[in-house]
Amino acid sequence: MNPSGPSRPAAGFFSARRKLILVWVVTALVLLGLVTVAVVRTGPAAGTDFLAGPQNQRQEHAAAPAPQTPSPEALAAQAAVALDADIQRILTENSGYRIGVVLADTRGGERRSYGDGSEFVAASTAKIITAAAYYHLVETGEKSLDVPLGSYDAAFQLKAMVNASSNDAWLLLMQDIGYPRLIDYAASIRISYDPEQNLLTPAEMAELLKQLSTGKLLNAEHTQELLGYMQQTNNERLIPAAVGPDITVQHKYGELGGYVHDAAVLTSGERSYALAIYTWGEDGESEERLNMIHELAGVVTKAMLE
């Protein structure tokens, strides 16, 4: 019997055990670190949505760029297609009339033609050829605006012929020019015109207005004066009645028997178009005819100028 009680383990034993435990802990920590590095290296690449939750995906979807606005060229092309369809519809709905419509951008480009493109009796729309021819002779020194012509001078007769559509003034001016010279002047601006027959196509009338409005026929002073006579005329019931106040209308109408025409330069800002509408029917300037001309002018201005 040992009076001192059970013997205690030696101190060295506990020290060795603690060292062993410490080695195990360190080893476990090293292994855990290696596993963590491996997981990180083999995880999804940065910038992918592999770990993105539904909320993140919704946010990315909401941040997608908005559709681009169509370019002015694309919008113009769409408007032209719609205009073609509208004019064809109007012509079909008014098939009892003979109708020719031509639209020309004064800045250039191809003319747009609809309906009957052959010759019409031009009625008073042809007075613009006479006016341009007379101004041309004034510019070459062969004529004068101050010379007496009838009961007034040539300047008065020019304004009366265009602004009030006076046939007496038209006859006086044509006689003063001479029919052969008037024919030659028309040919010089690429228009086939005989004043005794008074025939024009809608395309010729639109071309005449295009050249006039862009200063290709007359000097700046005479161009401005003639176009001024074509505003606020004695008959504003045709094209002018169909367009808004923000559009400038310089026009010459013509009515003779069953022929009812109007040809105008339509301007809004930097945009300008020559529009010729020639019509023939048995009803003269009827309400139905006016409505048809208004509708044609309306779809043109909506598509091209508004």
Automatic annotation (TrEMBL):
One of its GO terms (molecular function) is beta-lactamase activity. The chain crosses the membrane at residues 21-40. InterPro entries: Beta-lactam/transpept-like, Beta-lactam_cat, Beta-lactam_class-A. Residues 100-279 form the Beta-lactamase class A catalytic domain. Residues 50-70 are annotated as: Disordered. Keywords: Hydrolase, Membrane, Transmembrane, Transmembrane helix. Gene3D superfamilies: DD-peptidase/beta-lactamase superfamily. This is Beta-lactamase class A.
